[in-house]
Structures are given as structure tokens and as C-alpha cells.
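Thread amino acids onto this structure.
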């Protein structure tokens, strides 16, 4: 959260960008407040940020983390949100210290070959992370999911209730997920580009993992908690601090509609933690893989 010592035009940043989501420390609501986004734009436009090097003529750093994400850190700090950066990295060091850290912030990390091949299921501490923002800092006892729009009954549901089998039927699914950017390093060898851009995080082949997820099927949540969706409902929109996405609502008759609100996982990324250039040029990646097993 923003500190009381930081101001913009006489107002504290903590007042301009308040936390307001129960159970989620550091969550700033942007979607509902275009004026808040405009203030953030003005603040960022008033600052001078250092340019990150383009790895067009120099190799990637032989470090771990490979890239620091300095510009993204600077953006957060300018808005008084440095704590999001600090909490994210502290969580990584606690829960995922042995990954190959591609980008320190927003955190992106991949699994080494030995970690990936150690069993059919990927241990949670080795499961890759693909992020576009800070690692969520959740208070599980207070966290709520809000469902509104074209439903029969808008609701707020606590994480505790979602995990209670007496209130919602729990399901388990074994899923292998993979980032589409896996092996991007092979393309980056030809054009490394701007090394600190999130889209260019130097993924090797470790952005893949298999886990057993436990949670409530989405269609059960909509039926039990909301009494179903209205006839005119065509899509579900998932809203978070980062860009939103939408998907057609699950039909009770559609066997493929088994989307699960995962609240627990074995051998994979947890429900509160979501589911990149050259020394000639891919040598840095290969060396990291060799050095780490």
C-alpha cells in the first residue's frame, strides 16, 4: 500500500490509491475508477525513468534473476506501491527459491529439467509461475470472491465457504498447463530485443507443470450461490488488478464445462498464486540449466 509520507498535488498517495478489497493486501481497484487511472497516468508522465538496455548487441546477464524488471519496479514505486514489489519477491524467496528466476518483477520463473523430471506431478515449490503483476498477498480468512452482473442473485462468497464441502461440492482434476512462451529463448536468439519487457521474458523449456487441483466447479458456484445466470448472459468476465478476460458461461449439459475455482493443489501452483538472450545467444539459458542440475 502507499505510505502516508508520499503525496501528489497535496494529497497522500495512500488516499489517491486506497486498498479496498477485503482479504487482499495491496489490491488497488482501477476498473471502476477512470479518474484514478488518469491520476496514475499523470504521475507516471511526470517522472523520468531510466531506459532498459536492448540486448541487441550484448548478451543476457548470466545471473539469477536474469532480469530485474527495474522499470516495473520504478512504476510501482512512483505510485507509492513499492510494498507490492517487496511482498512479491519475499514470497518467491520463501516458496519458490530454486526456480530459474527469469524476471524478478512482475515475477516469472521456470522449472529446471531435473525438477520437472523428478515425478509425474510437479512439486508445488517447483511449479513455474507466469505473472503480469504482483504476487497476491491474501488473507485467507477474510478473502472474498464477488459475482455480479447477469446472475439471478449477486453474491460475495468467502474463500472459507468455497472450500467447505458442506456448502459446495469439491472436485479434483489433474491438469498439465504450459505457457505458450515456452522455448521463446530460441526466437530471442535471433532477435533479443528489449530485455526488460515482460513479453520478452527469456523462457527456456521449463514453463510447464502437472498438478492435482481441488476446488469447486464454476457451474456449481453459479448454480448454488447465484441461482444460475440470466437467459441473456453470454459471457463471464473475470476481473482482477490486471487486464480482464471473458469466456462463455458453462452449460450444465456441457461436459467440457468443468472449469474449477481452484482453492488447493497438490504438486502444483496454489489457488492464491496464479496460474523472456545471448552469449552466443542461447548459451546463458543452457548454462543455467546445467548449473542447476
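Threaded sequence (293 positions):
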Amino acid at each position: 500500500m502507499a505510505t502516508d509520507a508520499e503525496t501528489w498535488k497535496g494529497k497522500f498517495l495512500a488516499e489517491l490509491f486506497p486498498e479496498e478489497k477485503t482479504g487482499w493486501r495491496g489490491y488497488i481497484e482501477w476498473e471502476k475508477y477512470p479518474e484514478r487511472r488518469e491520476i496514475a497516468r499523470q504521475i507516471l508522465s511526470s517522472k523520468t525513468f531510466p531506459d532498459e538496455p536492448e540486448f541487441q548487441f550484448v548478451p543476457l546477464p548470466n545471473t539469477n534473476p536474469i532480469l530485474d524488471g527495474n522499470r516495473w519496479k520504478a512504476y510501482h514505486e512512483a505510485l507509492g506501491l513499492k510494498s507490492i514489489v517487496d511482498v512479491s519477491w519475499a514470497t518467491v524467496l520463501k516458496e519458490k527459491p530454486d526456480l530459474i528466476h527469469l524476471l524478478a518483477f512482475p515475477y516469472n520463473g521456470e522449472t529446471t529439467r531435473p525438477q520437472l523430471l523428478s515425478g509425474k506431478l510437479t512439486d508445488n515449490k517447483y511449479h513455474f509461475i507466469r505473472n503480469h503483476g504482483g504476487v497476491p498477498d491474501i488473507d485467507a480468512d477474510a478473502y472474498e470472491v464477488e459475482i455480479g452482473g447477469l446472475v439471478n442473485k449477486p453474491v460475495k462468497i468467502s474463500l472459507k465457504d468455497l472450500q467447505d464441502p458442506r456448502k459446495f461440492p469439491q472436485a479434483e482434476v489433474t491438469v498439465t498447463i504450459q505457457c505458450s512462451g515456452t522455448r521463446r529463448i530460441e526466437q530471442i536468439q535471433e532477435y533479443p530485443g528489449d530485455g526488460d519487457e515482460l513479453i520478452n521474458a527469456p523462457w527456456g523449456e521449463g514453463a510447464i507443470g502437472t498438478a492435482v487441483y481441488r476446488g469447486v466447479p464454476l457451474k456449481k458456484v453459479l448454480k448454488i450461490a447465484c441461482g444460475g445466470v440470466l437467459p441473456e448472459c453470454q459471457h463471464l468476465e473475470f476481473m482482477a488488478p490486471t487486464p480482464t478476460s471473458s469466456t462463455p458461461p458453462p452449460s450444465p449439459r456441457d461436459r467440457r464445462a468443468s472449469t474449477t475455482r481452484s482453492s488447493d493443489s497438490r504438486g502444483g501452483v496454489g489457488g492464491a498464486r496464479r496460474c523472456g538472450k545471448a552469449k552466443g545467444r542461447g548459451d546463458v539459458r543452457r548454462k543455467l540449466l546445467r548449473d542447476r542440475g
